[in-house]
UniProtKB/TrEMBL annotation:
Higher taxonomy: Bacteria, Pseudomonadati, Bacteroidota, Chitinophagia, Chitinophagales
Residues binding Fe cation, per UniProt: E17, E50, H53, E94, Q127
GO cellular component, one term: cytoplasm
Tree of life domain: Bacteria
Gene3D superfamilies: 1.20.1260.10
Function: May alleviate iron toxicity in the presence of oxygen. Iron-storage protein.
UniProt-recorded name of the protein: Ferritin
A Pfam family it matches: Ferritin
Family: Belongs to the ferritin family. Prokaryotic subfamily.
Molecular function terms from GO: ferric iron binding; ferrous iron binding; identical protein binding; oxidoreductase activity
Domain Ferritin-like diiron, residue spans: 1-145
Keyword Iron: yes
EC identifiers of the protein: 1.16.3.2
Biological processes annotated in GO: intracellular iron ion homeostasis; iron ion transport
Length: 168
C-alpha cells in the first residue's frame, strides 16, 4: 500500500495531469480559431496524451490498493497572444510538470517506496521528451522569425504538426 503522503502526492499529480489536458484543450481551441488547423490538431492530440497520463496515475493508485479522489480542476490560463507565446506556454507548463514529477520521485526515494520510484521513471523520461519537443518547436518558430514569423514558415509548421504521429 501507498503511504498516506504518497497517496496524496500521486493524487495531486493525477489532478495536475488532468489540468494539463484542459490547458492543451484551451490552446488547441485557440489555435483552431486562429486558423492553424495543424497546430490545433497537434495540441488536441497532446491533450489526449495528458489524459492518458492522468489515467496512468489513477490506475497505479488503485492497483496499489489506495484511494483515488477526483478533484475539481482549475481553469486554464489566458489565451496566447501569438503562436510563439502559445509554445512558450506549452514549454513552461511542461517544465513545471517535470518539477512536480521530480518532487514525487524524491519523495519515493525518501520513503524507500521502490515500486512508486519505478513507476515514476516512465514519466521522468516522458517529461524529457516533452520538453525537448516544445523547445524544438520554439526554435523552429524563432528561426522562422519569431513573433513576426513569415506566414509561410508558420503554415509549414502547421502542416508538419498536423501529420506528426501520435504518442503514448
Ligand atoms: Fe503529462 O506530460 Fe506533459 O505535462
Amino acid at each position: 500500500r501507498l503511504s498516506p503522503t504518497m497517496n496524496q502526492a500521486l493524487n495531486r499529480q493525477l489532478t495536475a495531469e488532468a489540468e494539463a489536458a484542459q490547458s492543451y484543450l484551451a490552446l488547441a481551441a485557440w489555435a483552431d480559431d486562429q486558423g492553424y488547423a495543424g497546430i490545433s490538431n497537434f495540441l488536441f492530440r497532446h491533450a489526449h496524451e495528458e489524459r492518458n497520463h492522468m489515467m496512468k496515475f489513477l490506475r497505479y493508485i488503485l492497483d496499489r490498493g489506495s484511494k483515488v479522489k477526483i478533484d475539481a480542476l482549475s481553469a486554464p490560463g489566458a489565451d496566447p497572444t501569438s503562436i510563439q507565446d502559445c509554445f512558450n506556454k506549452v514549454f513552461e507548463q511542461e517544465v513545471s510538470n517535470t518539477d512536480s514529477i521530480h518532487k514525487i520521485v524524491q519523495q519515493s526515494f525518501e520513503e524507500q517506496d521502490w515500486a512508486t520510484w519505478n513507476f515514476l521513471q516512465w514519466f521522468v523520461k516522458e517529461q524529457v521528451e516533452e520538453e525537448t519537443l516544445a523547445l524544438n518547436l520554439l526554435d523552429k518558430i524563432k528561426i522562422a522569425g519569431g513573433e513576426k514569423a513569415a506566414n509561410e514558415a508558420l503554415l509549414e509548421l502547421n502542416q508538419e504538426l498536423g501529420h506528426m504521429p501520435d504518442e503514448a
